């Protein structure tokens, strides 16, 4: 696919997907949606990708929906399902829960860890995409907000389920009902993000963390752990324990388990293959 509104790079087992409309604070368009899904599906299927970074060009992460989408909404021609047409589709593997096959809830179904490097404004739909990432690092210049309620809209795309699990019901209600904008430090206090870093060191720090995941963690184990965590949000303790026992027994016969033990005994970095 000819990418016009994103940048996509793969290097050292890390795929970096950059939303690339910096003059519009990377506001979301139908074309960006198609390119975004296509790039994620590409990264998911590549053996030379073990970690995915999602970030934005310029001063913004994503300022929300572009006016072109809002115009379609106002004109009654918008259908969120239409945004899934064109390009490859990520997160469609076997065993994926129906919960993670919805228009914007598919990031948990991607088998590889996704890190949001939130370099600037993450608003509305931009915040939705950041919330569905597995880990969120923020620049100290980042801002967060929903604004849905200030447009006469509701909590969109499942964040009424996700946001309380990240920041608690009271904070979720505060953010969603007021539509207020918070800075990176308040987001950290709420546990909306994992870390806050100086703007000029954000990407270096995210890449360093991603490199550790890509080189020191078994890709097979990381994939299963990601599925365990997201699926466990939908289940009780008993089924989670049963799945853990099953997956642990399966791990004992893998190449990555043998390599993990060998590298520990030989006091050297592991050379995992994901098998």
| SS field, number of helical segments | 10
Order of strands in the sheet with most strands: 1-2-3-5-7-10
Give the uncertain stretches in residue-range form: none
Measured distance between first and last alpha carbons: 30 Å
Helix content: 40-55%
> Gyration radius, to the nearest Å?
19 Å
CATH top level assignment of the largest domain: Alpha Beta
The general outline is globular
- CATH fold name of the largest domain, please? 2-enoyl-CoA Hydratase, Chain A, domain 1
Number of strands: 10
Helix/strand-derived category reads: alpha/beta
Strand content: 15-25%
Looking at CATH, the homologous superfamily of the largest domain is 2-enoyl-CoA Hydratase, Chain A, domain 1
The tally of domains stands at 2
Largest sheet descriptor? 6 strands, mixed
